[in-house]
Amino acid sequence: TTTTSGTIGLISTPTNFCQFKEPPLLGPGAAFPPFGAAEFHPTTPENWKGATIHPTGLMKEPAVVPGRNAPVTFATQAQGQDIIPSLQGAVMMVYGLDHDTSNTDKLFNLVCLYGNVARIKFLKTKEGTAMVQMGDSVAVERCVQHLNNIPVGNGGKIQIAFSKQNFLSEVINPFLLPDHTPSFKEYTGSKNNRFLSPAQASKNRIQPPSKILHFFNTPPGLTEDQLIGIFNIKEVPATSVRLFPLKTERSSSGLIEFPNISQAVLAIMKCNHLPIEGKGTKFPFIMKLCFSSSKSMNGAWNNATNEGMIEKENEVEVKQDVYN
């Protein structure tokens, strides 16, 4: 018999079904918090503090500004679940790093050219080996394609391959590397990641390593000799520099050439995101480097327009975000 409660015998027929919904999928790089445009400084050649060819007082570590370049906590791992679905398959192994001089920041400076970087961990049991969690698997594919088996420094060579791990767990007490820096570092809060939005990602020129680098976001009063001096201090001497004509008083850009690809890769690792202080500015200029598509300095001017698109597009973004 049928009762008013909707029960037939001992079998109940529920009148309301629970609606189960699949959790929304996170797109590539969704773990990274949004950031504003890159900082530019209204500095003119007249008020910029110059330097000699060996400008020992030129480089300065940027101050930590809460909410802007302070560390940001990565999403926590739920028990029994992967840390973030969008980061599955986004971990790679890096072999062949120089044990005595390599660290997390130098490795970040290189791999950030091909995608967002979440975490980097050096292995204690395998010297010269690191694991890198990128923003997505596409970034790992780019690194494998462009950086695997490339020469670095004097006789070194690095190998890159996919890792079987889906993510890197946080290391609470990392051991120290030979240069006394931590062997683990979080980069999800780094403003130096270059693929934080589709618009920002579209500006990056994905290039294989070359002996000519494109530099930008440097002080507008910077001279070729001063720039060569900066790389000399970092022990990666350049052979020539070409400054692009200034398109704005906010910053300068150009090309810098090295004797070979291995030295150019080492220069990226040592000098990418190097703070350069400008007189009268609240924040230092963060010099940015990337591999150039120019095959020679003689043909560099033919590519000047394409190389300079990064600055031109950034100028549009930062009109409302200038720091004095």
From TrEMBL:
It holds the Pfam family RRM_5. Residues 90-165 form the RRM domain. GO terms for cellular component: ribonucleoprotein complex. Keywords: Ribonucleoprotein, RNA-binding. GO terms for molecular function: RNA binding. Transmembrane segments: none annotated. InterPro entries: HNRNPL_RRM, Nucleotide-bd_a/b_plait_sf, RBD_domain_sf, RRM_dom. SMART domains: RRM. CDD domains: RRM3_hnRNPL_like (cd12424), RRM4_hnRNPL_like (cd12427). PROSITE patterns: RRM. This is Heterogeneous nuclear ribonucleoprotein L. It comes from Ceratitis capitata (Mediterranean fruit fly). The gene is HNRPL.
